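Submission checklist for the structure archive. All mandatory fields must be present; incomplete records are returned to the submitter.

[x] Identifier: Xanthine dehydrogenase YagR molybdenum-binding subunit
[x] Organism: Rhodococcus jostii
[x] Residue count: 698
[x] Sequence attached
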Amino acid sequence: MTLVEPKVIGTPTERVDAHDKVTGTALYAFEHPVDDPTYLYPVLSTIGRGRVTAMHTADAEALDGVVAVLTVFDAPRLSDTSDAELAILQDPEVHFRGQFLGAVVAESPEVARHGAGLVRVDYEELLHDAEFRSGRDDLYAPEEVNAGFPTDTEDGDVDAALAAAAVTVDEIYSTAMEHNNPMEPHATVARWTPGGAGPVLTLHDSTQGVHSVRGTLAPLFGLEIEQVRVIAPYVGGGFGSKGLPHAHNVLAVMAAQRAGGRPVKFALTRQQMFALSAYRAPTVQHIRLGADTDGRLTALSHEVITQSAKIKEFAEQAAVPSRMMYSSPTRYTTHRLAALDVPAPSWMRAPGETPGMFAAEVAMDELAGACGLDPIELRIRNEPAVDPSTGRPWSGRRLADCLREGARRFGWGARDATAAARSDSDWLVGMGVASSTYPAGTMPGSVARIVYRSDGRYTVQIGSVDIGTGAWTALTQIAADALRSPLDAIDLHIGDTDYPSATVAGGSTGTSSWGSAIVAAARAFRDEHGTSPQSGAEASAGTPENPDAENFALHSFGAHFVEAHVHRDSCEIRVERMLGVFAIGRVINARTVRSQLLGGMTMGVSMALHESSVNDPRFGHVVTQDLASYHVSTHADIRYLDAVCLDDVDEHANAMGSKGAGEIGIVGAAAAVTNAVRHATGIRVRKVPIHLDDLLPD
């Protein structure tokens, strides 16, 4: 693969959108100005399962300022109801508490909310089932798990290998339900206008993929793709929750059909986000490891039970990383689901790897202890020469380098000396380590267009989205190097379906996919127009197929190091230091990549110590519905935090030699915290988040 010659790529470039963001001129979805707007507030179900028998709307309709009221009995009909999560207001069935049953559209947000509160709903209530537990008798195997992976795999006789192993680990690990909670809630502005070929729907949406939203909504409303335009120049975070359109998009579009041609603005409240956006399902994971006396794995079994929803299946692929992470001659992985009367789970930063690697990396720490080995040495001894799941050679696997470099930087050699702190301080001190990995893929389907202007500048268009990760800047850097021009000669245009198609910002594939399309378009431009183009010269190209993807195992790797302090009396846990060392190919922008890695690491600490969406199965809803009761890590929770990247170029990954950085930072981070707490206290906790009472003596 011919790589782009890096000149601007790799430099710690300031964000090109920084000025607009800090001055408040960068417009997010709900802020977009439209003429004569109306505002929507939803009516939500208050039962976990059943049927609506009546909706009393007279009081709301009589309220001054109310424009329209929608219910399950009179809402516009959808042309496609195959996706049950999106087919809202099409029948009176209630599938979960917090489901959309209607909406009030009014002249102001306040009137809309007042009106929604006046709508009374009568139900035929049925017994609901919203309790996730591992001992259920209705667990089932999905046809496949997220991202198309096989549900189960088996290589060799694991049970026999475990019976013969010199050392074994056999434990249950669990992770909590978590909600994404980006700073900007899910929001959209929907507007219908007349068009020559039929009505035109325009959405200003908070989304990770404008073309994904258009492609999903158009058939729902019987529209051609060209009749829908989606605009999202700035998005205030997503973490996967905005990777797909959700029911709020559909409700806003329906409401706009009833608003007499006026635009409808709709933003979920923070409380509504806990039922209507997306979340990471809880898991219970059974891991069995067998090893010889030297600590080399002879058996690996990873069985996962997780939650799905009756309304829509989603299977978190938590056991998949165990299929490729370490070498073992026998291996067994499974996934089983509990389908409940709850909202559908979906993507949350590094789905699969985040919960799966928590359990796997804590289990590896336990195995190291059982073998009497340093946890880093154990991992290095189990390095596979090729990808165990495919047999392909690694395009680049520098996990051992990450572990060794991190140990050097972190002072791992002094780890045993921290035990002295247990006897002469109020704070117990421990160090923990965990490995990290994430696939380094490129998604097909993105196209870039390049136009040369009379002022000597290039207009680069691609319908990608920057969800806060720095895509505005990284893609500008890639275009500058690919066109062999200065950075300030590039005018990037993204976040609009009027630009060429682009894949979603997800799976850590955004920069790889969009950047590859930009490089291909730049090469096509030079081939067609040479080095002295005329004004108006233009070229387009899509993300090329990567033949190396079929011949090499493409993954990023990393290592987390944590120093945790635990108070002897109160059991308060503080993360005093945290370091991440990563091999993610060539870094496009050292500044924004570091921010991405630090953000992921912070989210991992949050998973380990704070985040837990508490479900009350009696009512079928999450009771921690705000950021006061649903805790997330902040600056005060980590005293010292750093992330470094190895000097690394993966020539098999893409034309930039880069790999994604958005998700690998969270993978393994919670395990490193948990392992550090174990080293400090001697108490092994096998669930997250860790509670103070988990560390109390028996």
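[x] Structure attached
Curator remark: The first strand starts at residue 38 and ends at 44. The longest helix spans residues 510-529.
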